Amino acid sequence: MARPQIAVRRRARRLWSTLGAERRTLRQGLVALVVSTFAGFVAGLILAGIDDTLRLLPGLLVLIPAAVGMRGTIFGAIGARLGTSIHAGLFETTMRQGGVLRQNASVALLTTLSSSVYLAALARLASAAFGEPSISFWDLLTISVVGGLLGSMLILAVTIGFSVLSYRRGWDLDAVATPMVTALGDMATLPTLFLATFLVRNEPTRTIAAAACAIVAVVAVVRGYAVADRVVRRVVLEMTAVIVLTPVLDILAGSLLQARSSTFRVYPAVLLLVPPFVGQAGALGGILCSRLSSKLQLGVITPRGLPEGPALIDGGIVLAFGATVFALIGCIGYGLAEALGSPNPGAGDMIGGTILAGMFALPIVLVVGYYVAIVTARFGLDPDNHSVPAITSVMDLVGVICLLSVLSLLGVSNG
User: Fold this and answer.
1) 229, 290, 316, 324 - which has most CB atoms within 10 Å?
2) pLDDT, tens digit, for every residue of 231-290?
3) 18-32, 90-104, 177-191, 290-304: lowest mean pLDDT where?
4) Number of other CB atoms surrounding residue 150 within 10 Å
5) Which helix (H) or strand (E) is 82 found in, with range?
6) Per-residue DSSP letter, 200
């Protein structure tokens, strides 16, 4: 009888010791999530502010989640790879040829350009499949390539700077990279996509821009698979399946938003909640996958069907983060709506609905995040290249479904 009690006490002490060691991660991760939540609301304000453009250019709302999600796919994987390189002692602060920063910058540029044409095609096909009006494929291509490239250049600069700062100050990049990348993706991509729309509003520039974007995208596709750097080529090859499959989920999310556009016209404040809620759901999944990926590659955990102790602790950290962040999103969303005089369904629906939607999303984050990391490791793939992009895209769709479902349950979607 005494032996089981001793064993329980030992496990409890190990758990307490581990949680104590994670205090720095908890502080850093929570700060990053709070900052990125506020940034998500900036994106929400931008999205609500370009409502006239969304009506003028039908189909753009279908492209937006995919374009934003692709930034998370590309740069979430980059953040995870850089975090692993720091833990493994391989990180360098220079942009020398063959260094981790130079390699990841090349991957970012090539995958951004090559994926943009694919996103435009998906958005056009999805609009047709759901019977929604849409601008032409060439207009979507121009917006996708130009807006995506401008946004990616900004996010790349900040991501590299942030990784160097994390390396020098001893921050846990796995805990802070994904929230910051998600926030940057929301904040940078929406304005750059909006700026790119001006190219398709003028007939002479529309044709020239579309032709130039098509050429650049094709060159990037060819270059990605023929680049001399073996590491860059391998990452591009491994990420091909992710880039092909994950945007489908983002396009579906955009199609759902397009289908519920009448709700946003009745209660514009609800549109404020979409970027921060969806972004933070993906960020929480990214934190989990980044930490699991590093542990898998360092041998701290093994790819087992049932999670081991360190993985359970990571899941507990994500739960704590999620409960805090979703409550914060609801409160800030309602406060902003009231301050701006934006029609909204009330404090109960805005705050309570956001928290309830978050509680629906969190179990999916934990289950999908864990098993995506485990399955990629079992197949011998680099989990940094697959798990973070997969979970962020899954949560883009799941986040929209959870939020819209709860709002519908509360009667908000009925106006």
Assistant:
1) 290
2) 888 888 878 877 888 788 877 887 787 777 777 777 877 878 888 898 888 888 888 887
3) 18-32
4) 18
5) helix 60-87
6) G
Q: What is the pLDDT of residues 341-355, one digit of tens each?
A: 888 888 888 899 999
CB 57 within 8 A of CB 139: yes
User: How many other C-beta atoms are found inside a 10 Å radius of the C-beta of residue 237?
Assistant: 12
The reported pTM is 0.70
Rg of the chain taking only CA atoms, in angstroms: 21
Contact (Cβ atoms closer than 8 angstroms) between residue 174 and residue 298: no
Non-local (6+) Cβ contacts of 149 within 8 A are: 112, 113, 116
**Is the pLDDT at 340 greater than 60, yes or no?**
yes
End-to-end CA distance of the chain: 61
Tokens of 259: 């289908």
Buried b or exposed e, range 72-81, using 16+ CB within 10 angstroms: bbbbbbbbbb
Angle at Cα 41 formed by Cα 147 and Cα 372, nearest 5°? 75
Neighbours of 12 (CB within 10 A): 10
CA distance 197 to 327: 35
Give the dihedral sign, CA 36/42/48/51: negative
Alpha-helix residue ranges (DSSP H) falling in 197-303: 203-226, 230-259, 261-266, 268-298
* Lookup: tokens for 385: 């290249």
pLDDT in tens, 130-142: 788 889 999 999 9
Name the residue with tokens 């005089």: 341
Distance (Å, rounded) from C-alpha 37 to C-alpha 103?
30
Cα 188 to Cα 169: distance, rounded to the nearest angstrom: 26
